[in-house]
Amino acid sequence: MDVEYYEEYVRNSRGVKLFTCRWLPVSSPKALVFLCHGYGMECSDFMKGCGTRLANYGYAVVGIDYEGHGRSMGARCYIKKFENIVNDCSDFFKSICGKEEYKDKRRFLYGESMGGAVALLIHKSDPAFWHGAVLVAPMCKISEKVKPHPVVISMLTTVEDIIPKWKIVPTKDVIEASFKDPVKREEIRGNRLIYQEKPRLKTALEMLRTSMNLEDSLSQVTLPFFVLHGEADTVTDPDVSRALYELAGSVDKTMKLYPGMWHGLTSGEPDNNIEAVFKDITAWLDKRSEGDGMVPLAENFQHNSSPVVTERVTAAKWSRSITGQKQHKKRLGGRYLCGWKGSQMHHNYEMQA
Q: In the chain, at which end, N or C, are there fewer CB atoms within 10 A of the end residue's CB?
C-alpha cells in the first residue's frame, strides 16, 4: 500500500513553533492513531518505521515533536511543566480529529516509554473522547526498587527554580540499554534530533512527579488499552506495566510480555521481532476499529508466530512465581528516575482465568 507523508509546523498556546507529521494511506483510513514519542526522542525519523507500518495497514498516523524535542522549538529537552506537553498534544490531536474527513473515524493514542505517560494523561483529561491506546513500555509508575527517597526529592526541589536547566541528573547510556540490534542502535545514536545529554534538573523532577501522580491514579484509567513490554527491559520495569494492567479500571485491557526483548520493542529489535510486535499491535487495533469497537472479554487473542510467546490477559488474574533467574541487567546499572530502573530478579507470570 502506498503511504503519503506530510510535515507541518503549528504554534501551541504559548506561541512556540512545534513540528508535526503525518503518514496517510491513499484510501480512507480505518482509524486515526496519534503518536506520543519517548523522552528525548522525535517523530519524523525515529518513529518513521512505526508511522509507515501502521499507515501501510490502513491507519492515518499523526505525530508531534514535544516542545524542545526533535524539530520543535524550545530549549533542548527542557520540560518546564509536563502538563504543557499533554495540553499541546491534546490540542493538536483534537484539531486533526475535528477535520471533516476524520469526524467518523475512531481515535487511538499510541505512546512509547514517556509517551505512554503522555497518552494516559491525554486520556485522563477527556476520558470519553478516546477509543483506546497502545502503550509500549510505558512510564506510568516508579519501580519500588529505585523510588528516590523523599529527602532526595526535597533537596532537588529546593534548587529546581534556581538551576532548572542544568544538566546535572546522573544517568547511564540509555540508548545502549534500550536497543538490542547493534546496527539499529548506532543508527539511533547517529540521529542528531535525539537528545543524548544528561537530563536537566527540572525535566527529571517533572518526569518523576508525573510518574508518581500516575501511579496514584491508575485506577482512573478507563479506556481500552494494549500494553506491551519486553521482559528483558532494563530501562522501564516490566512490573510497571503489570501494575497498570492490574490496577486500571478499564474493562477491555490486554497485556503482553515479550521474552528476551529489550526496551525498544518497535525500533531496536531484530526485524523479525519488530514485525511480530506490529502484527500484535495491528491485530489489536483492527478489532477495535470495526463495528462497535468492543471485543468480547472471553476472546482469545493469540497467534503462534515465532519467537514471541503471546499472552492474553483480559479479565484474568496473575499468578506470580519467582524463578530466581537474573535478567540481563549487566548492560544497565545504577538507579534512575521516572520508571528507569536498576537490577531486579526475573519473574515468570502465568494466567489463571
A: C
